[in-house]
Amino acid sequence: MNSKQTLLAAGVLGLxxxxxxxxxxxxxxxxxxxxxxxxxxxxxxxxxxxxxxALLAIALLLQKKEHKLLKVASVLMIVGILLFSGSLFIMAIxxxxxxxxxxxxGGVCFLGGWGCLIASALRD
Length: 124
Fold this sequence. Notes:
The protein is mainly α. Helix content is 84%, strand content 0%.
């Protein structure tokens, strides 16, 4: 991914994090409380925010230098958000626990993204 695509993804994922956080705090709150899944939903929003901010930083770094490891880091962060936060959102809203097997794959993507960011810093 180039800097523009990464910045666009960060913007969209940041917007969605705010919208989902507000939706969960208001419209979905009774359902999440009834399902005892409010903490899971909140965790999904938090991790989406954290990694969206990391994605924003990567986009800014890519504007200075198109480094392959930064491009890989951006993809891994996006896939991590989709798998980790996405699976937690579905688990919380649909009250389905079987998706919990997908969540760690998102965590591995996050780790890989951070690792690529570290490796990029060490190479420059």
